[in-house]
Automatic annotation (TrEMBL):
Residues 144-469 form the Glutamyl/glutaminyl-tRNA synthetase class Ib catalytic domain. It is found in: Mitochondrion. This is glutamate--tRNA ligase. Belongs to the class-I aminoacyl-tRNA synthetase family. Glutamate--tRNA ligase type 1 subfamily. The lineage of its organism: Eukaryota, Discoba, Euglenozoa, Euglenida, Spirocuta. It comes from Euglenaformis proxima. It is an enzyme of class 6 (ligase). It holds the Pfam family tRNA-synt_1c.
Amino acid sequence: FIFYVAVATAALCGALILLQAIPETKLIATPTQSVNSIRHVAIHGSTPRQGKVLSRSNGAMHLEGQAAQVSGQFSASGTRPFMFETTFQAACCCATVFAGVVVGWFLERQRDTRQLQAPESIAIMVATSARKADAPQTQKLPPMRTRFAPSPTGSLHVGGARTALYNWIMARKTGGTFILRIEDTDMARSTRESEESMKADLKWLGLMWDEGPETVKEAEMRFRQSERGPVYAEMAQKLMSKVGPDGKSIAYPCFSSQEDVDALKTATEATGEFQGTFVSPWRDAPQDVVQAKLDAGETYAIRFRVPKGKRVAINDTVRGPVSWDAEATIGDFVLLRSSGVPVYNFCVAVDDALMGITHVIRAEEHLTNTLRQGLILEALDFAMPQYAHCSLILGEDGSKLSKRHGATSVAQFAEEGFVPSAMINYLVGLGWNDGTDKEVYTVQEVIDAFSVDRVQKSPSVFDMQKLKWINGQHLRNMDDSQLAALLSPFLINAGLCKTADSPIGEVAAHMCKQKIELLADAIPFVKDALAYDINAALTNDASAAKLINEDFKGLAKAIVEAYEAGEFPDAAQADFTEKYGAWIKEFGKKIGRKGKQLMQPARLALTGVMSGPDVGAQLRLVAIAQQDGVPCVSIADRMAVLKALAAV
């Protein structure tokens, strides 16, 4: 575009000079050879009628034939020949036209160069676009070091399990490290039994830690806070010896007892001087007074000196920007008690730093703890981890989830027959979704889909019925052998199976899979299958009694005869279920029954009840139980009852 403007400008300047230099000359143009014709020549290299093309030679532009020059499209008329009045005017005209041509030539060369480079540029752009299209929508995250840090004062509950799960997922998702740290500084309430219980629950969920108690890494770093006392003492002394921006030590000894603290608070509240935070009289005490106390061997707590006007800010992944006025919110706080025991927030900050924790995902009730921890980390010249504070989990009545809402500990869920994959599926969705309608996930799908930035701020409601439904879906998605492995312990505890590898487990799994939501739900089905009381059904079940009037005895007699004749399949064989399906069809043809008129009375005759799981599976279960010595009513005994009933 610049090139064309330059050429047109040069030509116009030349024309103006000509008009001034030759006043008596008249330029006459036909309508089709106006200024537009000139522009057409400049752009297309020919006049509309001539059809001549521009050619380039050594960077100069020429017109072929009659299109040798644009001014040639005009005819001149006048009394004197075409001439300039002065040599100077002629030189100016030539110089102007020449300058325009040179500028145009230079710009045209630049344009040609860009055009030659364009294919390469376009190729680069296309390749870049292709790479962007092929790339995953989410950037690959660097390896995260996350931690789950429970206090071993009770069982692992739903909230703690979700916190552990979120941290475990992000470590696995990024190829990072999941750390288990036991925060047992509350010596009065912490027990090793609770710790072992929590570890067992984490193992049941499949949330195995990479570093923690009893791992090889423990040789390098202890993971129980009760065993890290020297570390905390060293860090506290470091803060006492380090000078802050105000020229005073970051931490200082406070000789006020708890009684002194309480008395000072009471006194300042009475006078209206209490500002909501405790101001230690030892914050600005003279050094000689402090030294005298130290020399006397008096016990003291170590307090953190909160800087005047200090604000602490974080960009929480879940809650967004959060900040605090430190001085107004907390005042100087204790790092080490006078007994030498470190306080919770000091331990957490030091441990997160020394263990290299990059991301802290925890419950929102810990949000205010971030203020103290942030001050400590900054004072020790450690970087703050990225925080994410997740919302509370509420019961269906809107109150905080507790025992009155039903099972809340992981151990209870395991005892009731929930499976780990379903628990993970449900727990991850308490406050998170991937933006789709999908509700059932495998563990790997959870890892792939989860991201902390989609965790919601609002509280989530624990729905037991939804958890049961999800658990049922996971049971149905298992193959029989996988379900049998989970089901067998329940059957053994109920006295319905002798060993974990008994075929009873797999047959029961196949028989119950579509009918249960919990593993424990299978127990009544297995019990009913092994029991047999047809007389009770005929007496108490109206629908069963009705069959007596539909020649039930005749069908029962025919079944007994088939059994005695050896036509009835052998339930002790592994393929009995399939053979029974084929036999009942042939049996129906033989006695002239089909559909409901065949299947309902046959079920009643062989199982003693009007409804339940597959009849073939139940009879196969009976045969295995008989072989394993599990109490049951054998098929032979059932036939004897039917024979007696038919004879009445």
